[in-house]
Design a protein that fits this description.
single chain, alpha+beta, Butyryl-CoA Dehydrogenase, subunit A, domain 2, Butyryl-CoA Dehydrogenase, subunit A, domain 3, six-stranded mixed sheet, 23 helices, globular, transit peptide
């Protein structure tokens, strides 16, 4: 297909669009007799695939899979060999909870895979394990994360050597299943507003944990309803004083609180546990609510890496203020966000793979007296799925980069790197999970009625993933954190400060990009220019810089009359657009870098095609912004649109190879509609035909 060719050029001159449609519809009423045996759902070769790229699927999948593929394959093989550990469709909540616990115990004690050992020492390997586990059962993946990343991670990251010595082995071998009790009924995102208290009693050398009101009940706590024996409880540390106030609030700290007897599993005195019940998804995770009534714990149960209390009630910390201690504590907990961003890409890959394979196999309508065509040959289906396929690749490389930076942070403990990873993880977690949530519904719709069958996975994937947009930080709140960090960088730039790694491009953008767009470049419309990574990245960064400059000006203006909070709220939608634009710039930069670094020429060419589609589709979707400031002239906008459609068509031609490049095990994409037609025929026989 020539990118300059129009839709009208492809139509037969003697048949209008309307008459063609009438002919197609009439075949439903009076079908033509088949001229040959009706084929099974064999994949058609696209009629216009003359320029199709040759893709080496082995080289592409090798480049994509990373260094931890071996342990992922070991996990998949273990669960495939154990039918008793596979989650059946329609399993009840109580059965699912017990099955998840059995699965986790089997993984650790029978398969001898110990994820906890990698949480700090090799995060990339830990996230690879969670990705494989999540493909078995998402509830199992979340339960594993609660045990090792949240409960276990809080002990490792917020505690000191005495806590590691006491709890490591029990967490590692599952003798000490635990919870992460941060969220309260009235406070989720606003962690500094938590109301649970931990009051120190110097007479007994203990902390007294209290739930002062119903709003302070710990809520949605994973592992609490059935299996948890311990909880890391986040509470305000209250110290007695000798002044008129009598107490001093030292801010939110973390405490280890036993909640059940280690042997009998009976709830301990002063602890009340309630079951949160059936949820939209993730019903293999036993979420519960916790109330504490004057529960006493030893002083040593304070996780004291960032602040400690002596026996006589004196508080010490290397960090001078409550805010700095709070920031340091949360900075050590970003691993959950990193894991969710990484896992969400796995959801997207699975759903895109199922939808693309089905769309290649499924045939509907076609020219008169000709065989029906693959539904992926329809432009509408291509526009649904091909940009999504491109985004899957883009997100893969971006989250790989995030895991790399997080691993460096855990080894180096550099303050600037911690801040950079905090903002990067917030942006990618929010952006990727929001995109994946929408895409899961689109993939279901793209598979028609067959996509609605539970066995084809879209329902469970969509329901289980839905909460990713909320836990480990609400996406809207996280995007505001990204915007706030951008504004700080903007301010620091003009005060002579240095920019952190992710924001380096702003050094140029706030000088060069904000000047008047070049009227000559604004009219360049050749395919070579539009497919130039420099043009694409400059366009993304120009948009971010314009948004940053404008929102800073609006905040300055509104703060004079509305105050800081009122001005922020007045500009909130603008701020969210800024954060989204910046995150897209980071994703594209990492995709371009990954294309450049690909060693195999054919795989590199395929990735370049996909990267171009990702970039130009985003530019076209926001073309109004570029036109408003004359960054793109009308003729160039039209050229971008035509080239985007052409690239979408070309990616369709290698869509099968591209989803194969994800190298997902067959058991992961086990939906019958994504397999050969015989598999779906077997499924229809299974349900009674």
């Amino acid at each position: 297909m020539n990118p300059n060719q129009t839709v009208e050029d492809e139509s037969h001159p003697s048949i209008t669009a309307a008459s063609r449609r009438i002919q197609c519809l009439s075949l439903h009423l009076t079908p033509l007799p088949p001229s040959q045996p009706s084929p099974q759902l064999n994949m058609l070769t696209c009629a216009k695939a003359a320029n199709k790229l040759e893709v080496d699927k082995v080289s592409l999948s090798t480049y994509m899979r990373g260094k931890n593929r071996d342990i992922q394959e070991k996990i998949i093989e273990f669960f495939e060999s154990r039918p008793d550990l596979q989650t059946p469709v329609g399993v009840s909540m109580n059965e699912h909870r017990e099955l998840c616990m059995r699965q986790l115990v089997a993984l650790v004690r029978e398969a001898k895979i110990k994820p906890f050992r990698y949480v700090v020492d090799d995060p990339a390997k830990y996230f690879a394990i969670t990705e494989a586990i999540g493909s078995i059962d998402v509830s199992l993946g979340i339960k594993l994360g609660v045990q090792f990343s949240l409960w276990g991670g809080s002990v490792l990251n917020l505690g000191t050597e005495k806590h590691r010595d006491k709890y490591f082995d029990g967490i590692d071998n599952l003798d000490y299943p635990g919870c992460f009790a941060m969220t309260e009924l009235h406070h989720g995102s606003n962690v500094q507003g938590l109301q649970t208290t931990a009051t120190f009693d110097p007479v007994t050398d203990e902390f007294i944990i209290d739930t002062p009101n119903d709003g302070a009940i710990k809520w949605w706590i994973g592992n609490a309803a059935v299996h948890g024996k311990f909880a890391t409880v986040f509470a305000k540390l209250i110290l007695p004083t000798h002044d008129s106030k009598k107490v001093s609030d030292m801010g939110v700290h973390a405490f280890i609180v036993p909640i059940r007897d280690l042997n009998t599993l009976q709830t301990l005195p002063g602890i009340e546990i309630h079951d949160c019940g059936h949820k939209v998804g993730l019903n293999g995770v036993d979420n519960g609510a916790l109330r504490f009534r004057s529960v006493r714990i030893p002083r040593d149960n304070l996780l004291n890496r960032f602040g400690d209390v002596s026996q006589d009630g004196k508080y010490t910390s290397s960090l001078p203020t409550i805010n700095k201690r709070f920031a340091a504590m949360l900075g050590e907990l970003v691993g959950g966000r990193v894991g969710l961003a990484y896992a969400s890409v796995g959801f997207l890959k699975i759903s895109v793979t199922i939808a693309v394979r089905y769309s290649l196999l499924r045939q509907q309508f076609g020219p008169p007296e000709q065989p029906e065509v693959s539904i992926l040959d329809y432009q509408s289906q291509q526009h649904k799925l091909m940009p999504m396929l491109a985004s899957s690749y883009a997100f893969h490389f971006a989250t790989q980069y995030l895991v790399q930076k997080y691993s460096e942070m855990k080894k180096m403990h550099d303050e600037q790197l911690v801040a950079d990873v905090h903002a990067l993880s917030a942006g990618l977690k929010a952006y990727v999970t929001s995109y994946t949530a929408k895409s899961l519904s689109t993939c279901r719709e793209a598979c028609g009625g067959h996509g609605y069958a539970a066995v084809n996975r879209f329902g469970s994937l969509r329901n289980d993933h839905d909460i990713f947009q909320t836990f480990e930080g609400d996406n809207t709140v996280l995007m505001q954190q990204v915007a706030a960090d951008l504004l700080r960088q903007y301010k620091d730039k003009f005060q002579g400060g240095t920019l952190s790694v992710t924001w380096n491009y702003l050094r140029e953008s706030m000088n060069t990009y904000l000047s008047q767009p070049n009227p000559i470049i604004a009219r360049w419309e050749s395919a070579d220019h539009l497919r130039d990574p420099k043009f694409q990245l400059d366009a993304f960064r120009y948009r971010t810089s314009r948004l940053l400059q404008s929102v800073a000006a609006w905040l300055r203006k509104h703060s004079k009359t509305l105050g800081t909070f009122g001005a922020w709220n007045r500009c909130l939608n603008h701020l969210l657009l800024l954060a989204e634009s910046h995150t897209e710039s980071v994703i594209l930069a990492k995709f371009i870098e990954a294309v450049h670094n690909c060693p195999d020429a054919r795989s590199r060419a395929a990735l370049k095609l996909v990267c171009d589609l990702y970039a130009l589709d985003h530019i076209w979707n926001d073309i109004g912004t570029y036109r408003n400031v004359d960054y793109v002239a009308p003729n160039k906008a039209k050229a971008i649109h035509k080239l985007t459609e052409y690239l979408c068509f070309q990616v369709r031609n290698i869509a099968g190879e591209l989803v194969d490049g994800f190298d997902l095990p067959a058991s992961v994409t086990r939906a019958p509609i994504a397999m050969q037609s015989e598999a779906y025929v077997q499924y229809t026989h299974h349900i009674g035909f």
